Fold this protein.
Amino acid sequence: MELLGVGAAEGLVILVITLIVVGPSRFPEIARQGGRYYRMARRYAAEVTADVRGAIEELESEVEAQQDEFKAAHDEIAKSISSSISETRDELESLGRETQEAITDSEPTAAGEPPATNGSGGLLAPRELPAAGSTPETDEPERRTEGD
């Protein structure tokens, strides 16, 4: 057991030197005072130790609370990203199916007949096919002039 870096052997040496210096008549009074100071020092050291341990526990609890908050935020962000990825994947799959259906539906019915377009190069869905004799831009029958 040590107090302020002084072990049992060093304490005994100090007691012997004190006995020699002050003499046997004053030694009991000085020993009592030394004992009081020793108890006060131990109490003070115990209080400081308790304060330091309390501060450390408080800091640890704050760190754990922060970790819990960060973990919750991480889980929420991960869930949000996963949800967004899933929604995007579903939308892309849906668009792919719609595109495939549009391509399948717009395949020419007669061999060698080109697929119908909307004038800007895009394929028309079956419901958008122009009526016979109309132009894709107006869906109105072509008007012929007398010179045609």
The CA atoms of residues 15 and 31 lie 8 Å apart. The chain is about 65% helix and 0% strand. The longest helix spans residues 27-105. The helical segments are 8-22, 27-105.
